[in-house]
Write a structure and sequence with these properties.
The strands form two sheets. A two-stranded antiparallel sheet has the order 1-4. A two-stranded antiparallel ribbon has the order 2-3. The protein is mostly helical. It is flat. It has helices at about 5, 15-20, 25-50, 55-60, 80-90, 105-125, 130-140, 150-155, 160-175, 185-190, 195, 205-215, 225-235, 260-270, 280-305, 310-335, 345-355, 355-375, 380-395, 400-425, 430-465, 470-475, 480-490, 490-510, 515-525, 550-570, 575-585, 595-605, 625-640, 645-665, 675-690, and strands spanning about 70, 75-80, 245, 250-255. Helix content is about 65%, strand content about 0%. The relative contact order is 0.06. The N and C termini lie far apart (about 110 Å).
């Protein structure tokens, strides 16, 4: 190999120099530049798109023609409008194509029925009172919708008749599911079920078979969209171009007639209408739009540094800006009279959720500038968009109730409507009806903003893993399946999580962190314990501790595993990334001390014990909220174990826990100051004092 290839600068091998290059950073930079250029070009193109002048605005589809126009000469041309109409007519004549019956669905449904029947059979064999069996049957299989008499009949019918019922139910379901069933045919299939039950059964037994089978009959033949679309595409392609013939002197459009696409196409073919746009306008608008793009990128780099670690966020922001800008452009072209109903505030709401208050305020100002340019270059639209966005962003700084979102949308709609009315009056169109319509459009804009925000919350959470306040509110409900399971399987841990949640919420409020995120994270931080609840002391009610019979290493691994179990449950139930972080980080890299000390005692020498086997894998808390939950978790456990008798002893326990976390470096990566730690400590002390306050001793009373 030549020396210039094998040796680099300083005599080091070239392969080492290549490996030393931070490729991940380089690739991220290339991606950032690529999407920035894409964003810039698209934004500039959409904003700088010329606005038609008054002459071209008069010739729009759906409007009355201002004059009669005759064809100046005979013309034959392939009409795209007629061709498209012929294409659509040919495609409409193609009947939908459905798939054949899916045998997998039939097997699945029959297997479900077999499982239901086995469960009922097992319940029939149990030695329980009949009423208890009926109650359990109702709980086991709720979708059967059996009457009390039918439940009793199922439980009391003799074995030979039960065997006949089960075999007939399986036969009937298998027979039905072998035939193609579409969504719109379900009702007809169910209506014909009784006629297909064997005559060997009594009327009552046949009714039971129908009840058992009905919930399991589902569509097994679905619309084959690909085949249908392919057939329709072939039908469209088979249609030749449609030629339109126009004679000289023929009226293309008469004054007062509504202009349609066919007449507009003919006018364009003759060159009788053409937009007259000043040549300098696109350049000026493009310059302003380009400056806005630069400002947008600066805001992201300076105020939202986490976009470098999470590239999906700028992708989501790019999509939002493109969607709103394109929508604004389309409404100004196709429905300019509805421009005051455009939901500008929705963009601010979504950006506030994904990026924070300050970046959202700045980015919404840039968007409002673009919207003013797109609309009609008047200050009214810029002011309406800016004020509506800023008002909603500031109102949603702490979105902890759904009513807050509704009030924000109503406020944005009111502001938009009032500015629209003022602009209408300023233009000289002082008409009560027009003012009423403009005000109503403003309120409609607020309502649409709330609707789009709710849809956006769902999409942000699903596609880009952005934790929205409404998602957190849903997770905070005690009816969530994970919290219900935790309450049933590990009641001690559930009570512990409630205490930690109260502590974390108050501490977050004290230091300006997100109290809702802290509370929700605390509620789910120990969900892994319900996989093996008996291994944790708060769930051990009879005094039996299985760790006393376990090897120290096995004991430690059993405890440490609750983090992995919690993450597995979190992924199964689609908990967002920011909530999963609490499960990973609330123990940081701490060690479980009791098994470790047992191992040291058994080994007789700490050097013979692998300390890493007794420590959590981390990472350490990297946000204020996860650090608060770590401290709350440790303090709650310590206070519950020590049961302090007075506030001084309580304060000493809290101080000990805080110092242990600080000395072990668990808070090194969390953005907490010493002032924050003092505020967290004071909040914890206040909550604990409320829980352990002295109680009055009431005198005993004798009963007569």
């Amino acid at each position: 190999m030549p020396g210039w290839m094998s040796r680099g600068m300083g005599g080091k091998p070239l392969i080492h120099l290549v490996r030393a290059i931070p490729w991940r950073r380089v690739l991220w930079t290339i991606g950032w530049v690529s999407w920035s250029l894409t964003l810039g070009l698209l934004m500039v193109a959409l904003v700088a798109w010329p606005i038609d002048d008054g002459a071209s605005q008069a010739w729009q589809i759906g409007q009355a023609a201002p004059q009669t126009i005759f064809a100046p000469y005979e013309l034959h041309y392939p009409s795209a409008v007629l061709t498209e109409q012929a294409h659509e007519a040919a495609a409409a004549r193609v009947a939908p194509i459905y798939t054949g019956p899916d045998p997998r669905i039939a097997r699945q449904q029959v297997e479900k029925l077999r499982q239901n029947l086995e469960a009922i059979g097992q319940l029939r064999g149990e030695t329980l009172p009949l009423e208890e069996k009926a109650r359990r049957l109702e709980q086991m299989i709720r979708d059967l919708r059996l009457s009390p008499e039918q439940r009793l009949r199922l439980l009391t019918v003799d074995s030979s008749r039960w065997e006949l019922i089960t075999s007939e139910a399986l036969r009937l379901l298998d027979q039905i599911m072998r035939e193609p069933i579409r969504e719109d045919e379900i009702f007809a299939v169910l209506r014909g079920l009784p006629r297909q039950v064997t005559a060997r059964l009594t009327e009552e037994e046949a009714s039971l078979v129908v009840r058992l089978v009905t919930p399991l009959i589902v569509p097994n033949s679905v619309l084959d969209a690909e085949a249908t679309e392919a057939a329709r595409r072939r039908a469209r392609e088979a249609v030749p171009p449609q030629i339109r013939h126009i004679r000289a002197g023929e009226a293309i459009i008469r004054q007062g007639d509504i202009l349609d696409a066919l007449a507009l196409e003919a006018l364009q073919q003759y060159g009788l209408i053409a937009p007259a746009t000043p040549g300098h306008l696109p350049i000026a608008r493009g310059t302003i739009a380009g400056l806005g793009v630069i400002g947008l990128l600066l805001v992201l780099q300076r105020l939202v540094p986490e976009v470098q670690e999470r590239p999906r966020r700028p992708l989501a922001l790019l999509g939002l800006f493109l969607l709103f800008t394109l929508s604004a452009r389309l409404i100004t072209v196709f429905a300019p009279e509805w421009i005051w109903a455009f939901p500008t505030a929705a963009l601010g709401m979504l950006m506030a959720t994904g990026l924070g208050t300050v970046p959202a305020l700045l980015l919404s100002a840039i968007w409002s500038l673009w919207f003013g340019l797109i609309a009609d270059r008047t200050p009214a639209f810029l002011a309406a968009s800016l004020l509506a966005n800023w008002l909603t962003i500031l109102m949603l700084h702490r979105l902890e109730r759904f009513q807050t979102l509704l009030v924000a949308g109503l406020s944005a709609g009111t502001v938009t409507g009032l500015i629209g009315i003022a602009a209408t009056v300023e233009s000289g169109s002082f008409s009560p009806l027009r003012m009423l319509i403009t005000g109503g459009m403003g309120l409609l804009a607020g309502a649409l903003s709330v609707t789009i925000t709710l849809i956006g919350f769902i999409m942000l959470g699903t596609l880009f893993d952005v934790t929205t306040p409404l998602h957190l509110l849903e997770l905070a409900r005690p009816t969530h399946p994970l919290l219900r399971q935790l309450m049933v399987r590990a009641p001690g841990t559930y009570h512990h999580t409630l205490m930690v949640a109260n502590l974390a919420e108050q501490a977050a409020l004290r230091i300006g962190a997100d109290p809702l995120l802290a509370r929700v994270g605390a509620l789910y931080h120990d969900i892994g314990k319900m996989v093996r609840p008996y291994l944790f002391v708060e769930n051990q009610t009879n005094g039996d501790n299985p760790h006393e019979q376990m090897d120290p290493y096995a004991s430690a691994q059993a405890i440490l595993r609750h983090v992995e179990d919690g993450l597995a449950l979190a992924r199964r139930y689609h908990l967002p990334r920011r909530v999963r972080a609490f499960i990973q980080e609330h123990h940081g890299t701490l060690c479980v001390t009791i098994p470790y000390h047992r191992a040291v005692q058994e080994a007789g020498d700490p050097e013979k014990v692998d300390r890493a086997a007794f420590c959590y894998r981390g990472p350490r808390p990297r946000s204020k909220e996860t650090a608060i939950v770590m401290l709350a978790d440790g303090c709650e456990a310590a206070v519950r174990a020590a049961r302090p008798k007075d506030p001084q002893e309580l304060a000493q326990i809290l101080e000990r826990v805080f110092q242990e976390r600080i000395r072990s470096g668990q808070l090194d990566e969390a953005p907490l100051t010493m002032q924050d730690l003092q505020g967290i400590r004071e909040a914890f002390l206040q909550v604990f004092q409320g829980m352990f306050h002295p109680r009055l001793m009431y005198p005993e009373t004798s009963s007569h």
